[in-house]
Amino acid sequence: MRIAYCTTLRLPSDRARSYQVAKVAEALQENGHSVHIFTPWADDGETVTSVYGLSTPLSIERLGMRKPGGADAFFRLFRGMLTIGAFRRALKRTLTDRRNAFDLIYTNTPELLPELGRIGLPVILELRHMPKRLSARFITSLKRCRLVVVLTSALRQALVDGGLVDIPVIVESDGVDLQDFETTAPIDQTRASLGVRSGVPLLTFVGTLMVEGHSRGIPEMLVALDILRKRGLAFRSVIAGGPPDVAERLNATVPDGLTPMLTFLGLISRLQVPSLLAASDVLLFPAPDSDHPFFLQSFSPLQLFEYLASGRPSLVPDLPPLRDIADESLVTFYPSGSSEGLAKAIRLVLDDPEGARKKAGLARAHIAQFSWQRRMERVVGAMGG
After folding, report:
1. What is the DSSP letter of 371?
2. How far is CA 16 from CA 172, 175, 363, in A?
């Protein structure tokens, strides 16, 4: 099948969503399809392939406005909005003219549906979160699709409750590349590079420090670590991720007594992530105590899939979307946003290493169904015909 993948995300970038676009395109190609990505912002396909360590090169075409040479303040202010508008118009012209070159349109940008729905090709939409208000107009735009893919069962239920019953809506969480975790750096080498002594547990967080403009619960995690310090636990902890300004701000809030035990690594390459996770004793997954729909409906981070694939014990906030991915036999849940709850969960895992290893081993086997290739086989197969 010849697929036009349309997205407004920048490729490459340090955003998990951009990485997800690249992995979906790679998986589709590995499954025998041809994929051509259209985006208003991108480097060449070779650069994207190299940055993300992809096994197959991506075909990328940049449409819309070019980067300006001047520094006009007005343009800087409205550049994003103007670029997206130009991209939509250019995308409609391009796909209309080249309609016979494609069999399917795949997009993760619902704002493009008015244009894409008029091309005359079947459309698959990957919907990652709901708009603030689920309007009849939005539901109507979704009906232009042949298939809607959502990340969580809560998102699917919200669409069904909103009236989307005419077309199939399937739940497919994000994925993971298991091959990335087959060959990692020696554990002793990774721990030595971090200054972690033998026998000292390493507690690790790897991921974005903010998600869709929301706190990831890092302040609560820092409090949990300080609770353990005050109770006499000897450990080392590392936090890897960005944005850099958020990391700097959070680092300034670390209690003095915790500072020698904690390192902010900043942004690290995705190629470094498997080795860091494999060298850790406990993987920390914080989240705030929030009733925001994002955390109750849409939260399906790539980070959790990588944690499970690493075969290391994972501590996970008890949120409905995350229950789509794992249960108590695979991870240790704790109350979301609870520093005391996280501290107790860390202690529980460290005090029962055999039980923690068993859970982690089951999680590693379970996550095989979430490989990118299997995911995209299910997605394309669900379209029917």
Report:
1. B
2. 16, 12, 22
Instruction: Name residue, tokens 């009236």.
Output: 163
Q: Is the pLDDT of residue 377 over 70?
A: yes
Distance from C-alpha of 288 to C-alpha of 144, rounded to nearest angstrom:
36
- Is 2 within 8 Å of 101 (Cβ atoms)? yes
Copy the structure tokens of residue 86.
């130009």
Query: What pTM, to 2 d.p., does this model score?
Result: 0.89
- Give the pLDDT confidence of 229-239 residue by residue, as tens digits: 999 999 999 99
Place of tokens 């409906």: 297
Using alpha carbons, list the distances in angstroms from residue 37 to 55, 82, 223: 16, 20, 43
Domains and CATH numbers, the chain: 2-177+371-382 (3.40.50.2000), 178-369 (3.40.50.2000)
Single-letter amino acid, residue 239: I
Helices (H), the chain: 16-30, 45-52, 73-97, 113-116, 136-142, 153-161, 187-193, 218-230, 244-251, 273-278, 293, 302-310, 320-323, 339-351, 353-366, 372-382
Largest CA distance in the chain: 68
The terminus-to-terminus CA distance of the chain in angstroms comes to 12
Alpha-carbon distance 294 to 300, whole Å?
10
Q: How far apart are CA 285 and CA 336, in angstroms?
A: 10
The CA distance from 169 to 110, in Å, is: 14
3-state SS of 4-45 is EEECCCCECCCCHHHHHHHHHHHHHHHCCCEEEEEECCECCH
